[in-house]
Design brief:
Blueprint: E1 12-16, E2 20-24, E3 29-35, E4 38-44, E5 51-54, E6 61-64, E7 70-75, E8 78-82, E9 87-89, E10 92-94, E11 101-104, E12 109-112, E13 115-116, E14 136-142, E15 145-147, E16 160-166, H1 179-209
Antiparallel strand pairs: 1-2, 3-4, 5-6, 7-8, 9-10, 11-12, 13-15, 14-16
Amino acid sequence: ANYGPNPICKGCLSCSKDNGCIRCQHKLFFFLRREGMRQYGECLHSCPSGYYGLRTPDMNRCSRCRIENCDSCFSRDFCTKCKTGFYSHRGRCFRGCPAGFAALEELMECVEGCEVGQWSEWGTCSRNNKTCGFKWGLETRTRQIVKKPAKDTIPCPTIAESRRCKMAMRHCPGGERPAKTKDKKKKKKNLMERAQKQHSIFLATDKTSQ
């Protein structure tokens, strides 16, 4: 029987005009649909989004998924597909994958990622393989890959990083100073020689004028 624009009694064993299906045929799932203040029963082959099919000896029913942001679930507490924008991980839905897991974008799942160890201590400050002779250098620290990712497409975090550092000894003991320092001294010497030469010329000119 049809009541109104929708065949609300399709697949029913018993049905009422006001409440729709009350009991469903074998293998169909009973779903209680709510529209505003009204609710009525339907008999469906599969449950809608956010529900899963619960089979019982008395009657199969559509039961609501209890997992937040779940689109379809296998059971009350295990989600099989999350809503758009959420990653599936062990039956739950996440905006971002937990620590130690990486996002597999094509499936919107969290898989085991690349696991790295602790950072080492910062190395010696050096520049051009020297630990002296410059004011600033670089120091580096590293860490090891403990566990490779399940998928080759998932990148590992960086395992080496460097930062600027100030050298403990700017000048090397008993060694030559950097070329830049020598150039500065040479330039200063040339300026002094030029000044002395100009001063000598000035004195000679002054005597001649007298």
